[in-house]
Amino acid sequence: MEPLVIRAPAKINLCLDVLGRRPDGYHEVATILQTIDLADRLRIVRDDDVVLHCHGMGVDQDNLILRAANLLREHAGIGAGCSIECWKRIPIGAGLGGGSADAAAALVGLNTLWKTGLRINDLSELAAKLGADVPFFLHGGTALATGIGTALRPLRDAPRHWLVLVPIEADDVAKSANMYRALTTGDFGDSERARRQAAAVELGRIAYADVGSSFTRPAAARWRAVTGAMDSLAQTSPLAVSLSGAGPSVFALYASRAAARAAQRAIGPPATVRMFRSSAESDVRRFPLSNAAHS
């Protein structure tokens, strides 16, 4: 079999409300997830053991790609191995879901490589064991996520928008847990904002007033760059400005590529222009076999 090459797209949150802490210690959320055209690449071939090499990131045994491979191998009861090469383009710990996207891509690719024959529902159950965002990346596009983030309702593809993304990395392996701990009751929202946004998307539009994140206040308090990026983007006449996930990356939405490019030029590096990707464009299941890791 030829090597499998799979694209693992990043995501933004068109809104993210944390509703409160549950008795089991997890937090209840309501969020709209959207894939964008920033992506990592995974190249997967057969090998005697499970081996991972990443360009742009160190590798340890807690890496989500390795965990995904070992989880699938254990679930399927097989002894097959693989060699995975990952080209990192999604900034690490930036609130863009890079690790989760890579894990989903690994599950899908290895399901094909090892001929384990699992269906998408089976893969979703495994994905949920790896992280709350991982099941979403099996579908891509636009989705409403509730509960702890694993209860997904795929939505109609959001209307095509361009965004200026200001990627900000967080050098903190426990960033998400620390950010949840930093929330106060004043940061909590309800599910109505996400449900309004979901209803708007189903009608072919985006509710710009409902774009936002419960993590904005603690992220701005923790990373000075967040406030600077949001203030700079607000000066470019965007449709909306928001933190992505728990941060610290920030984005702004625009109706046209020209408007996004003008905003990016005004802000300068590290801001980049990106656009939404639909489920058909983002879904890792749809990528064919290929030898070209950078195609």
The helix content is: 25-40%
Secondary-structure arrangement, i.e. CATH architecture of the largest domain? 2-Layer Sandwich
Per DSSP E runs of 2 or more residues, the count of β-strands stands at 10
Determine the mean pLDDT: 92
Reported by name, the CATH topology of the largest domain is Ribosomal Protein S5, domain 2
Please give the CATH class of the largest domain: Alpha Beta
Low confidence ranges: 285-295
Largest sheet features: 6 strands, mixed
- Sheet/helix structural class: alpha+beta
Strand content: 25-35%
H/E element order: EEEHEHHHEEEHHHHEEHEH
Q: What is the domain total for the residues?
A: 2
The end-to-end distance, rounded to whole angstroms, is 19 Å
Label the overall shape.
Answer: globular
Q: Work out the radius of gyration.
A: 18 Å
What is the tally of helical segments? 10
